[in-house]
User: Fold these one by one.
Assistant:
Number 1:
Amino acid sequence: MTKTLLSITLTFVFFTQGSFASVPTLAMTFDTDVVTHNMSSTQESKIQRAEQKIRDVIGSEEFKSRVLNHSYNGVKKFVDNGGLTNSQIYTKILNAAETLRPYKNNTMNMGVKLYYEKSNTVGFTSTASKDININTKYFNSYNASQVSGNMMHEWLHKLGFHHAVNYSSSRNYSVPYAIGRIMEKLAARY
């Protein structure tokens, strides 16, 4: 009985250490601090579920791998990358030093406001504001994984990343679009 328990314990320790060995501590301790404005309890609950998914995904090996190995035209890079390598982008995400809060605190800090507009715009942000804005035309029908992808996209603007305003095939490979999609896809697993 003791030998079996010891074997199970050693297997658990090995599995736990092995599965997280290459994920930096900053990924596993990544946090979110999202302030909501004028939302119903149902809407706030969706934001909170999206926050949890963001924390889970950023703490995963697969998120790290997808960001580090993202490629455009056969080269490991993002479009509109601000001159940063994939590794530097990953580190910038983990440090979480927003342009308006330029200190590394390992926490996604932002406010979320909802608005309604008959357009194809899911959300937007301004460099002069700590808030992101999400169109209820989409938010109300989105699940928490889709919301987490949109939140990640808008938050990446807060870190200083941009993309083309008008659609182009390369825009999907920009830091906000590509990582927002990575987030949404992986969040569906949590």
Number 2:
Amino acid sequence: MSGLHALVYVSRAAHVLSLVELDAVLQRAQVRNAQLGVTGVLLHTGGQFMQYIEGPADAMGTIYGSIKADRRHHGIIELLREEIPEREYPPWSMAFRSSLAWRGGPAGQNSGPALTAVALSRPALYEELQFPGPSTSAARTLLTKFWNRARAPAAF
């Protein structure tokens, strides 16, 4: 095998996070992940997070330990942990999408440098989360369902 590992978890924000606070989370993750060779995507909507990270086992342990100690969220539930043959998201030290980021307009109108530079447009995120063909990974399925559920209108 490749020695690469993947992890998907969900959690709930400890308080309502502003775009500035989300930007700080994203910037820190991008720097740390780039240093440790970890890539992934972080989704945020309705006070909930879902994150997918991938990389070498030792780096994943370091990063996940930091994630679990972060007091800005709680109720972490690990959904998937597995060895993977190759990266799902090789170019992203940490891609990010928040429902907050598109309520007010396009990604370019968000405050904060990391949100402006790295936040994915809705079409780009949709294309990246939709894995063409029958080889859909469990991680992409979880991310897509989380994002689509968050975007669906509330049932009455």
